């Protein structure tokens, strides 16, 4: 069975075609600058150099059509006809509290995804455009929505509610939803396997990248996560502030004479390690600056590591212990120094990192000492494969 995985942004479309018989990626690609001048498609077939197709893409339907044409192209395609695609799995960022698991897309599901637009105004409209484009061009192919928020729907009310008037939960659905759920689910499932399918396993997953979040997972179910109503809550990130005193918003508005939307933009796009360091939102650039003695870059890294450690401590209390700590995503998979700093001094919790084992990038590994009572794993995330697996299960 071949599954096409689609992940739509407002002006981009990522895709992979996966052969589920052996879970291999046949082709992957990215359509960029949709609706903007200079749009192009980068199409990467396994065993071949990438093909770049520069064509106008005024909308997502045109972009999807270009992708489908590339899949069946006699030179760089990988299938003979569209009939070989058994189903399409779509990443949908926000499913609200309606979707606790993936869903086959029909009119009712589309209505519910649209109802979540106020909760996910930056992402859901783009996700919807991708779904509608595929439905138009592939009307007889099953479509599945896999939600980034679904994995966190097992949180209990004391973990997902905010201490504001209850009417705002009833009227506006203000609560913690969490994000990166597809990634947290993938790596936590793999960690359970690496623990020998230990029952009632207690795992903390650290999805560390430009956007970062942690999740506490007990027996395969999420009990808490660091992101909230939006991806702004939680850790210090590339450009996001993470946790802060909410009164800061009103204070900045009053002192700077700016609007709530302007402050929101500052907290989402001008803060985090970029705001602290003044160097970059890219941790690699900050690493270089810190090594050269830049004190603000050093501070930014220290704040990030400190926040990760705080959440780990909090989640160990909630879990009642820990069996494994997992690092994933761009920083988690590749930044050995960050992993070591996070784990330094956690020996009293049974988490002992091995500096030699930890000297790896981008591959699955056990990086804890052989003598460590608890395990520390690096597990590369694979959201596309998780989406494909969910899609296959539903359409079967």
TrEMBL record:
Binding site for Mg(2+): 7, 383
UniProt-annotated binding residues for ATP: 14, 207-211, 282-284, 330-334
Any one GO cellular component localisation term in the record: cytoplasm
Main subcellular localisation: cytoplasm
CDD domains: ASKHA_NBD_AcK_PK
Catalytic activity reported: acetate + ATP = acetyl phosphate + ADP
Active site, UniProt feature: 148
Site positions (Transition state stabilizer): 180, 240
Cell compartments where the protein resides: Cytoplasm
Cofactor: binding comment: Mg(2+). Can also accept Mn(2+).
Pfam families assigned: Acetate_kinase
A biological process term (GO) from this entry: acetate metabolic process
Keywords: ATP-binding, Cytoplasm, Kinase, Magnesium, Metal-binding, Nucleotide-binding, Transferase
Major enzyme class: transferase
Cofactor: Mg(2+); Mn(2+)
Keyword Transferase among UniProt keywords: yes
Pathway(s): Metabolic intermediate biosynthesis; acetyl-CoA biosynthesis; acetyl-CoA from acetate: step 1/2
SUPFAM superfamilies: Actin-like ATPase domain (SSF53067)
Function: Catalyzes the formation of acetyl phosphate from acetate and ATP. Can also catalyze the reverse reaction.
PANTHER family for the chain: ACETATE KINASE, ACETATE KINASE-RELATED
NCBIfam families cross-referenced by the UniProt entry: ackA (TIGR00016)
UniProt similarity note: Belongs to the acetokinase family.
Assembly, per entry: Homodimer.
Protein name (Swiss-Prot/TrEMBL): Acetate kinase
Origin species: Treponema phagedenis
Lineage, uppermost ranks: Bacteria, Pseudomonadati, Spirochaetota, Spirochaetia, Spirochaetales
